[in-house]
Design goal:
The complex is a heterodimer of chains A (248) and B (111). Chain A folds into 2 domains: 13-194, no CATH class; 197-248, no CATH class. Chain A is built from 12 helices and no strands. The longest helix of chain A has 29 residues, at 139-167. By secondary structure, chain A is mainly alpha-helical. Chain A has helices spanning 13-26, 28-46, 51-61, 64-73, 80-90, 94-105, 116-120, 124-133, 139-167, 175-194, 198-216, 222-244. Chain B is an all-alpha fold and 111 residues long. Chain B has a domain at 64-111. Chain B contains 4 helices and no strands. In chain B, helix 3 packs antiparallel against helix 4 (92-110). Classes of the chains: A mainly alpha (248), B mainly alpha (111). The interface between A and B is large, with 100 and 79 residues.
């Protein structure tokens, strides 16, 4: 699970794609996604959805928490619009991760629609590995590399959604809780591993501190506000540190 | 058949679109930024703080089955996982395994 050596990246798009496949298969997230989606498949079985629906949800949504919100939120007596809003609020993290990724991978003259598919693969898992390794590759190889990570993890997720669906009856009672807990613990440790600068360490700590305050005060859009407030404070600290160290 | 078709329609309109729209918006905004610009540092900080907020929210206000595990156990599992990560070669995998083991043992003992 330590970082694999970066390929020289001088090869073709196919080499870059296959490098992405290797990075994804060795990533902690291969393990995390297997457990997450066994849990999700079993949850879909519990709630009476078909196996095809469950697997298509993984392909189309590719957002663990939003998928759980959708499945558990669609009960009798729930307004569909409320569920749609809950899904949107739980997926707001995609906005800053994609904004941070796109300038790193886009090539000159690319149209927005050329990025729709590569960006569909983006989730925190894929982003963490992409941000870690993409800067070591030449720019023109970065999108095939990200596609290799994203497609690998998405395929693993989809297959194990089906596996979990049919395993539902034999899973231990604790499995559902353990599968849901693997999202926060993997987000925390992998983001901490990537946090080399004060900027990122401060953002992580501030997010953990401010998030609960806003969530328990029932502030609307608490995730988004935590990101903006925590991120801005962390950026301020970074500027302060930089001006003290005398660099422009 | 009708109910099945309706379920797929709901998946696209209620599940896919409200989530995917953030990715599309990210393309529009990110497409205009330079890799070396100052604002990218700010965006990276916002993304990191937001991911941390997701961590806190799932642990403190958990969905479904995780809610059956007592809060102190969830918090202890998160803390042990994090310290496991710090002290075992900064391995995310070690942190995940330790966090899960503490969660499961805690739930069996105190659940």
């Amino acid at each position: 699970m330590s970082s694999p050596p970066a390929d020289p990246g001088t090869g073709t798009d196919t080499d870059a794609f296959l490098f992405g496949v290797r990075v994804a298969s060795r990533s902690v997230f291969a393990f995390v996604i297997i457990f997450t989606y066994i849990g999700f498949g079993a949850l879909c079985h519990d709630y009476g959805f078909s196996v095809g629906w469950a697997m298509l949800s993984t392909v189309l949504q590719w957002a663990g928490p939003a998928q759980v919100v959708l499945v558990t939120g669609l009960g009798p007596g729930t307004a569909l619009i409320e569920t749609a809003v809950a899904v949107a609020l739980s997926s707001v993290r995609f906005l800053p991760i994609v904004v941070a990724l796109v300038p790193l991978v886009k090539r000159d003259g690319m149209r927005p629609r050329d990025l729709v598919l590569p960006v569909h693969f983006m989730a925190v898992s894929v982003w963490v590995e992409a941000m870690r390794h993409a800067p070591t590759l030449p720019r023109e190889r970065r999108i095939p590399f990200c596609n290799g990570i994203g497609l690998t993890l998405l395929l693993i997720g989809t297959v194990f959604t089906g596996v979990g669906y049919y395993m539902q009856a034999i899973l231990p009672a604790m499995f559902g809780a353990a599968a849901m807990f693997i999202t926060p613990i993997s987000f925390l440790t992998s983001t901490a591993r990537n946090a080399r600068l004060l900027l990122e360490k401060a953002a992580l700590g501030l997010g953990l501190a401010i998030g609960p305050l806003l969530a328990f005060s029932q502030v609307q859009f608490d995730l988004l506000w935590t990101g903006v407030i925590g991120g801005t404070l962390a950026y301020g600290l970074h500027r302060l540190q930089r001006s003290r160290s005398g660099k422009a | 058949m009708n109910a099945e078709l309706q379920a797929y329609l709901i998946l696209i309109v209620i599940g896919f679109l409200p989530s995917e729209v953030w990715r599309w918006l990210g393309i529009v905004i990110g497409g205009g930024l330079d890799e070396r610009s100052e604002i990218i540092l700010w965006v990276r900080a916002v993304a990191t703080a937001l991911i941390a907020a997701v961590v806190a929210r799932i642990v403190l206000i958990p969905p479904g089955a995780l809610a059956a595990v007592p809060l102190p156990v969830r918090l202890a599992a998160l803390a042990c996982g994090f310290f496991g990560f710090l002290f075992i070669r900064r391995s995310a995998f070690a942190g995940v395994v330790i966090g899960e083991v503490v969660l499961i043992l805690g739930a069996l003992l105190f659940g």
